[in-house]
Amino acid sequence: MKRPTLKDLAEMTGFSAATVSRALNDHPRISRKAKNRIIETARKVGYQPNLIARGLREKKSYLIGLIIYDLQNSFHAAVTRSILEEAQYEGYQVIIRSTMDHASGVIEAIEDMRRAGVDGIIITATRLEESSLEDLIKEQFPVVQLMRRLEKNTGVQIVPDGAYGIQMLVTHLLRIGHQKIAMIGGPDDLSTSRTRYEAYYQALQENNVPVDRNLVLKGCAFSYETGYKFCKILLRQVSKPDAIVCADDLIAFGAMQVIDEAGLSIPEDIAVVGFDDCDMSAHPRIQLTSVKYDMKLLAQLAVKSLLEQIDGLIPVHKLIDIVPQLVVRKTCGYLKG
Amino acid sequence: MKRPTLKDLAEMTGFSAATVSRALNDHPRISRKAKNRIIETARKVGYQPNLIARGLREKKSYLIGLIIYDLQNSFHAAVTRSILEEAQYEGYQVIIRSTMDHASGVIEAIEDMRRAGVDGIIITATRLEESSLEDLIKEQFPVVQLMRRLEKNTGVQIVPDGAYGIQMLVTHLLRIGHQKIAMIGGPDDLSTSRTRYEAYYQALQENNVPVDRNLVLKGCAFSYETGYKFCKILLRQVSKPDAIVCADDLIAFGAMQVIDEAGLSIPEDIAVVGFDDCDMSAHPRIQLTSVKYDMKLLAQLAVKSLLEQIDGLIPVHKLIDIVPQLVVRKTCGYLKG
DNA sequence: CTGAAAGCGCTAACAC
DNA sequence: GTGTTAGCGCTTTCAG
């Protein structure tokens, strides 16, 4: 027997479709008796409303889209999980799309999702021309951007405060006695990257430490390879650093690998710190000092803000900075002398 | 201006809705001229078909559901990613639900997804009463189970060949000179676990190595904690093992931690091997010997089989075993003597 | 080759 | 309180 429809229920109970609908959505104007009978039979036959039909009628699907860079990145996975949880809690289901580096992927994903009738979209992918986003926003289509800050501050953007994170890292390194602090960062065309470079410069200046431009290396991705490649370069330099600030944990892993291979020890010879605090960083054999932020909070804010927009409210906060937290582990070393 | 509908296109082009529909779905009986004109204007105004409406009509949503245990588990994330890719390639979008240990979660997820009109569901969660699955299958609702083998072989089940994996591990350990091989496994009520225990016993027997029941410990989850707790017990025993087969990588990480803390070295004092080959296992500071399987293949088969069912075909293969592969790294040690 | 009409399952006026 | 009607956007007979 196939799934019963509302109409089937109507026939079975002898009421009209409208009454059945009212009973199921606890509408005010309905007799207790009718309601009970209908709900009872609905339960008995295992009736489930067809959201597709409802969606068509109501122009609301209770579906949201989530566009994510790379699910396999433990950091993105964490966000995703929290968003899933939060959305489910709010009664929404989530269509996910992982775009990797495909620039066109995001646009395509947005189109596909809209065709599927999602009520709103959360974008965490790093690359997207602002123009296509502006189109959405102009259309008043609910969108939240997570983990990215665009030049033009279009729409709702939720990001951890990267500058503050870097500042904490640099300050901590200086305080415990490191002097020559290098930085390996991400591509310069990402605001995330730039923010971190700037915060690094500023933190040094505030502490009256001269900036050595040779110690600042810019990779073309937040990746293990970047860390590996540029740390090699750092080690070959005349004046080696005694600490390296990496713009994210993956870069830090790459850097650590080079240092290990060179037979140097971390943190005694060179300290290494990362950013994002991914799962692996906590592993006893790694123990990377890093900066973490409250994923759950991030996800909650994103979902909440999206639902506000879906419900027709104007989002109160458009630019939200989440204060991150320093996680001190072994790779940064302890107080020297 | 809001999104144009098919009706709008009809008005703009002067054709009827039916003709527009035919033009857009390249139906045979339509004049080239009409088709061109319609497609042209559709492009111009950025027409996108409303899949919700189409779904209602066609009883097909081009949505599939994916139920996964824990997205943050790098291993599950890998499967998810491949499934996403594959589904997208086939023109389907994916609704994801992460259930963690909630037994009820899976059932609820199935219901929610069906309400949303998914055309089929891939289930990778570990816990689910068979009965609710049987209901689906009796209803002929397309389902594929990934990574799990049920007692009653209901429906399509795709799993890596765990027995073969364990056999490779044990045989390898024996070949390179280990003698007292312990095993830390998962809960006994999971077929995945049982298969691995049995394979362990069998591999020992085949090699004429006596089984020492004290060396077989059964945890209640595939987790770091399990490894940590039971490896502690192993080390306290009179006759310590010289190798430990862990039923998955997480357990292995826990075990390694205990061995590290005890000041023993891996693999010189005790070898450790895992199963699943998660990301972290390849890390230079870890280098866990493990067993891996082709996620991409797994995902492809799952999606393909699901789509076959959706298209009304009877799946050719119902029980599919994927042959895994041994990944030898440092923690198992090398040939002794 | 094209149009008119019906209907997928549901909800919201509007009557009674 | 309840039923009737209409319609969301689309596809698909069935006529012409």
How would you explain this protein's 3D organization?
2 copies of one chain form a homodimer. Chain A has 337 residues and is an alpha/beta fold. In chain A, 44% of the residues lie in helices and 15% in strands. Chain A has helices at residues 6-13, 17-24, 32-45, 51-58, 74-89, 103-115, 130-138, 162-175, 191-206, 224-236, 249-261, 295-310; strands at 63-68, 93-98, 120-123, 143-146, 156-160, 181-185, 216-218, 243-246, 271-273, 290-292, 319-322, 325-327. The first copy, chain A, has a 6-stranded parallel sheet, with helices on both faces. A 4-stranded parallel sheet of chain A has the order 7-6-8-9, sandwiched between helices. In chain A, strands 10-12 form a two-stranded antiparallel ribbon. Chain A is elongated. Chains A and B meet through α4, α5, β2, α6 and α11 of A and α4, α5, β2, α6 and α11 of B. The structure holds a DNA duplex (16 and 16 nucleotides).
